[in-house]
Amino acid sequence: MAQIGEPLTLSRGMWFCEGFITKRIKLKMAQIGEPLTLSRDIKRSIELLEKLQKNGEVPATKLAALQKVLQSDFLNAVREVYEHVYETVDIQGSQDVRASATAKATVAAFAASEGHAHPRVVELPKTEEGLGFNVMGGKEQNSPIYISRIIPGGVADRHGGLKRGDQLLSVNGVSVEGENHEKAVELLKQAHGSVKLVVRYTPKVLEEMEMRFDKQRQRARRRQQQYN
Fold it and tell me: What is the pTM of this model?
């Protein structure tokens, strides 16, 4: 673990989170059919740390630092993405292989986000009115796929978990990073009942994208005017 007083960097945080969550998942998988209860396990760990702090058997500063990590938004984000990957990705092999592969996929998602907001999972109900947001970008436009608009009063707006400027990383466990715009749209259309999205908030990149597209439209209009 990092020395007391050092900041929780991405690499330190992922090292701790991968170890903690992988151990918990292997224990759960040893009990066939038992669902993931990582949030409950984390809560119990925090309660145990509080008891140890009162007993005074372990230096309080170290316990406080560990408790801070367990209560952090960062660990909660890791837990959400881990559970999403575990539940949606078909990984063949033994229980240990599946737990390890899920942990590595989660670490990869967070490593890819270094310097940006961390990935998070947003689940929306799929109704006849749609999902209530628009996407833009894609491989053919040499850009990531982004949430470009939250429709006022729509499903996403009422849910409140999605933001304009969120980069779309996956839809129901299928990655859309580096994919064409049409693939993301098709995955969203195919969803039934509900849709789980993994996103990360990078509004500055969306602004740059929109400025680039606007310049392209302006150049196209000028060319059209010249021909006329």
Answer: 0.50
